[in-house]
């Protein structure tokens, strides 16, 4: 029996059968090691269709500003859609859409081609041209994918804003990107109820000074929404009447494809910029190799939302470039019942499931009786992303999901391999992950860089650490899917990623360790970024939201351990003079953060304290607060200006929040 104690030394090699039929073989590592740039050039040429071949693989002469596949020209939407139709695969299903209320739609590649062409014509008719930014604030419906690809087709740069973000968060992203068009929906369904989006767009645009000219609205539910004359248009009035003919133009390999905002260590989110050729190469190659994709037979399902990088790379660009058939699901995993995920796997005979550790832990909590009722025997590769997966969850995933052979049946002799994939919004695609037909997997470790990627673990001086040692995770060579910068902020790009060790080593912001075999174990962020349910949240962003409330003078936010969400937001606040807690203020402040940023940022606990632990120079010691939030010993408080303050805070935490 595998236990979590021996996770580091337990390995699960691929079955002989899996290895013999695997898409990616060990030769890939050899080829990439022998000639890294040659390997990527081969991958780019064999995986994508180029209108003009590139003449040079990498230009790093202006480091840290990289250019990949120089001189090459291509169109991402052509690669994702048209070429599959031209190759006679137009009847293949591109998307099986499953709405939360149970409505479904199926779109083939031929239908996707028509939809993308119509949307591209529609956007052009609304005045969108190459280089313009389009904000996308949408639920998980097919039109979202169509919108992104239509932007790519005409060379407009999409900026998807997660539908769970508030009006304020939407506005700041729309302003930063100077978006001309917003594509949204009236709303969506979540937990069995309508969940509205359009009112947030109205609120975001209620103050003048924005750049938005038109708002295009998909009708998804039955709720009434208000329309602003001259600005707002229904998708169904504008798009379906358009021609399905749209001739694309090839774009330069380095033409911007999208901006996606992510939390950094300071308050303001960073607009991560990705470009076309390199990004598309890395996402398509890793999607195929990490998941052993056989597009003619597989049904792939990534449960992420398209508002995050995982949705961009492993729902839209990777899978569609590979001509995959995939499932997309609109809603929550427990609606209308806790078996919904497994019901979907059974219904569509899903072969690859890519999900997050937090969801696996939630399903563990609900109990194996639920998945045991379904036939999950079609699953042949399982993937995880977003945070390190703890060995308990990894083993549960393997035994309960990966070995499921149908209700009442003996488990599979060879459970589906698990690929734990480490990467970031900034890296574009997978960076550290096993190859399912090659690597003997280990519960809880992402293990080894993917072919063509060079990573290391270094100490504070940038020196590589040895086996059994930990340090900071770095990337040692530029890679095709790397971010090309932070939108409109080259200085911040240099400072954030390339100042710690110069332009030799990309600083990822994660701690990591080599085990005795040289496999990599991720250890969480080393900066002020929290990871809640696999979502990145900045402590300072939440602190800023709290101090924006009239009652709050000062706030300190930490990530505390949480059995389900990985980390949970815990906030400590000092009230302004004249304010007193009437017993409901903590709840008010939790909801205030929810309204300012979105539900994912809502603190698990808010604790009103008389003072925050500060050093004599005034620096808040978050480390001590983190200990308190975790119910641990407070630790060394001797450098505090007032060492007694921590006892008081710890006492309050115990009595009020029971930890
Ligand atoms: C964390 C999500 C451990 C990590 C694709 C990283 C992980 C941040 C893993 C990026 C993993 C993601 N194991 N940690 N497999 N995957 N992370 O930008 O801290 O939303 O820096 O991209 O998530 O989060 P982002």
Give structural notes.
- With about 650 residues, the chain is α/β, with parallel strands linked by helices.
- It has 20 helices and 30 strands.
- Helix 2 (about 25-35) crosses helix 3 (about 35-45), helix 3 packs across helix 10 and helix 5 packs across helix 6.
- The radius of gyration is 24 Å and the shape is globular.
- It has an 8-stranded mixed β-sheet with strand order 12-11-8-6-7-14-15-23, sandwiched between helices.
- The model has no long low-confidence stretch (mean pLDDT about 95).
- The structure holds 5'-O-[(S)-ethoxy(hydroxy)phosphoryl]adenosine (WTA).
Largest sheet: 8 strands, mixed
Strand order of the largest sheet: 12-11-8-6-7-14-15-23
Helix content estimate: 25-40%
Oligomer: single chain
Small ligands present: 5'-O-[(S)-ethoxy(hydroxy)phosphoryl]adenosine
**What is the 3D shape?**
globular
Mean pLDDT: 95
Number of strands: 30
End-to-end Cα distance: 33 Å
Beta-strand content bin: 15-25%
Structural class: alpha/beta
Count of DSSP helices?
A: 20
Unreliably modeled segments: none
């Amino acid at each position: 029996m595998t236990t979590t104690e021996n996770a580091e030394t337990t390995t699960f090699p691929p079955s002989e059968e899996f290895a013999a039929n695997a898409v990616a073989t060990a030769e890939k590592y050899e080829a990439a090691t022998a000639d890294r740039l040659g390997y990527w050039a081969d991958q780019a040429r064999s995986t994508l269709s180029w209108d003009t071949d590139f003449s040079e693989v990498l230009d790093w002469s202006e480091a840290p500003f990289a250019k990949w596949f120089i001189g090459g020209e291509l169109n991402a939407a052509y690669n994702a859609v048209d070429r599959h139709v031209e190759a006679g695969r137009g009847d293949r299903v591109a998307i099986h859409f499953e709405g939360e209320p149970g409505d479904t739609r199926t779109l083939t590649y031929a239908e996707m081609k028509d939809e993308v062409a119509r949307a591209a014509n529609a956007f052009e008719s609304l005045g969108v041209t190459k280089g313009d930014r389009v904000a996308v604030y949408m639920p998980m419906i097919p039109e979202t994918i169509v919108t992104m690809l239509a932007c790519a087709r005409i060379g407009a740069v999409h900026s998807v804003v997660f539908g769970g973000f508030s009006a304020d968060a939407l506005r700041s992203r729309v302003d930063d990107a100077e978006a001309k068009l917003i594509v949204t929906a009236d709303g969506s369904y979540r937990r069995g109820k309508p969940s509205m989006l359009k009112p947030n767009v109205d609120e975001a645009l209620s103050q003048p000074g924005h750049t938005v000219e038109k708002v295009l609205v998909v009708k998804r539910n039955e709720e009434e929404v208000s329309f602003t004359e001259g600005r707002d248009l229904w998708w169904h009035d504008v798009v379906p009447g358009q021609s399905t003919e749209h001739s694309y133009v090839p774009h330069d390999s380095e033409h911007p494809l999208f901006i996606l905002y992510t939390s950094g260590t300071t308050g303001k989110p960073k607009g991560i910029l990705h470009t076309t050729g390199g990004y598309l190469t890395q996402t398509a190659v890793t999607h195929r190799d990490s998941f052993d994709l056989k597009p003619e037979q597989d049904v792939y399902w990534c449960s992420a939302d398209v508002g995050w990088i995982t949705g961009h790379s492993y729902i839209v660009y990777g899978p569609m470039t590979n001509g995959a058939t995939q499932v997309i699901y609109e809603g929550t995993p427990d609606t209308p019942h806790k078996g919904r995920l497994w019901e979907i796997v059974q219904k569509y005979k899903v072969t690859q499931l890519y999900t997050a550790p937090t969801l696996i832990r939630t399903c563990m909590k609900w109990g194996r009786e639920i998945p045991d009722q379904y036939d999950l025997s079609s699953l042949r590769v399982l993937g995880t992303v977003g945070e390190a997966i703890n060995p308990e969850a990894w083993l549960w995933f393997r035994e309960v999901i990966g070995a499921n052979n149908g209700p009442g049946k003996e488990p599979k002799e060879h459970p589906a391999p698990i690929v734990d994939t480490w990467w970031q919004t900034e890296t574009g695609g997978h960076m550290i992950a096993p190859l399912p037909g090659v690597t003997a997997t280990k519960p809880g470790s992402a293990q080894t860089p993917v072919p063509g990627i060079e990573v290391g673990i270094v100490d504070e001086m940038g020196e590589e650490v040895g086996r059994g040692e930990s340090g900071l995770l770095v990337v040692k060579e530029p890679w095709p899917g790397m971010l090309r910068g932070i939108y409109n902020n080259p200085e911040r790009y240099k400072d954030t990623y390339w100042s710690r060790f110069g332009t030799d080593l990309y600083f990822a912001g994660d701690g990591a360790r080599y085990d005795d075999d040289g496999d990599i174990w991720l250890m969480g962020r080393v900066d002020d970024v929290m990871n809640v349910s696999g979502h990145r949240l900045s402590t300072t962003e939440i602190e800023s939201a709290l101090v924006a409330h009239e009652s709050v003078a000062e706030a300190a936010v930490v990530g505390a351990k949480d059995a389900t969400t990985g980390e949970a937001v815990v906030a400590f606040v000092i009230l302004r003079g004249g304010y007193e807690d009437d017993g409901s203020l903590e709840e008010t402040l939790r909801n205030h953060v929810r309204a300012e940023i979105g539900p994912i940022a809502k603190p698990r606990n808010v604790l009103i304290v008389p003072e925050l632990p500060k050093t004599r120079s005034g620096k808040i010691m978050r480390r001590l607060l983190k200990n308190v939030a975790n119910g641990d010993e407070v630790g060394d408080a001797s450098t505090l200006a007032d060492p007694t303050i921590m006892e008081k805070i710890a006492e309050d935490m115990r009595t009020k929040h029971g930890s």
